Amino acid sequence: MDLLFIFEWLDTSMLADFSKSYAGLFAIVQTFHIASMVMLVGMILLGDLRMLNVLLREVPSQKVIDNTGKWIKIALVTIVLSGVYEASAIAMKLYFNTFYWAKMAGLAMGLAYMYLIRNPIYRRAELSGLEPGGAIAAEAVQPWVVKMVAVTSLVIWFTVSASGRWIGFS
Ligand code: HEM
Q: Measured between alpha carbons, how far is 109 from 117 in angstroms, rounded to an integer?
């Protein structure tokens, strides 16, 4: 489906009139966009490095995943709101920008991966660790699977961030 009409509508919206008129505000919103990216990727990094046994080894992994989950959601809301504001100022440029679409595809993939694969596998890995001889252990996750999940997560979010940065260069 061609989404051009959405970008044309955004380009002529009141939000675009506003964002194109105030360059200083655009810079402030961009700061929020980058700060939320740091929080989002930072929290994901914490969880993934914990599952790779690189840091916070003495803290139960599920605690790290649960605690970072709240901040990931806050960062996601801020990044989408600030991103839409920024997009309104350069909507037509974005529509024709390959890296913008790479970022959006990566974001969709990253979210699906986090909520459908990463978090459930991390949860199951923690449970199987707690009850090695119990019923849950029958579904135990192999350590190499957990590590592959963590590395894949890191690669996906690095790609999303790098594509975002590349929009500015292209
Ligand atoms: C709906 C979601 C998003 C929208 C609409 C959006 C939109 C934008 C726009 C319009 C820009 C400015 C491009 C320019 O410099 O010309 C930007 C920059 C950027 N975005 Fe996003 N973004 C979104 C989500 C994300 C996510 C999830 C990440 C990373 C995890 C991200 C990382 C970046 C980065 C690193 C920059 C470059 C900042 C700079 O170099 O000044 N964005 N984004």
A: 11
